[in-house]
Amino acid sequence: MHFDSTTDDQTTRRLRPSLRPGGPWQHFADMPRLGDLVKLRPQPEDAPLRYLHRLRSSTTPEEAVTYAAFAIVPTDATGWCYECLRLMAEHLQPHERAMMQQVSGWLAAPSTRLRHEILREALWAPGSGPSVLLGLAVGWSTGASAPNDPEPAPPHKTPVAINGAVLSCLARAPLDRRSPFLARILDMAETLFRA
Q: pLDDT digits over 121-146, tens only?
């Protein structure tokens, strides 16, 4: 669980869960896009952490990254994605660091204005590397996508962008380092599943 952010330091903050409501079975039902990306289906009785472990020990453990991106609430998932990219920072291009700094600023002090700026920059970025995908995820994570657009982004957009960011950065690593990176990425996800 994580604290809700508030602007009033005198206000007691309430704890909120890091995972979306329901278990894996419900996540697949609520977000059909998840079923397009993860082939190993959950059992009706699977708890989120148990299912994550099943994916992690499968022949395609990358599906555990995908499930985590969908199961973790968007604000926490963007923070997890940021930490994953930071872990693999040596595989980010120099031009991607500016977006990482902006996302770091938003994670430290989230504001709608900064979220909109990050999304605008990500949408107009010349490429779609991991940090740009993270920027898209931040932009779509909470509330409206733009000041003049009252509608929030569809619920699958943030997890799809997070999944793309983490897995595309992982793909840049040399083959002999991918398994250790993946293990650490999933260890970080597990802390949110246990919270």
A: 999 998 889 999 999 999 999 988 87
Phi and psi of 154, rounded to 5°?
-55, 145
Q: Give the separation between CA 70 and CA 141, rounded to whole angstroms.
A: 12
> pTM of the predicted model, to two decimals?
0.90
Domain boundaries, the chain: 20-194
Cα–Cα dist 49/55, whole Å: 10
Distance CA 99, CA 124 (A): 12
Going 165 to 169 to 170 to 172, the CA torsion angle's sign is: positive
Token pair for residue 60? 């395609």
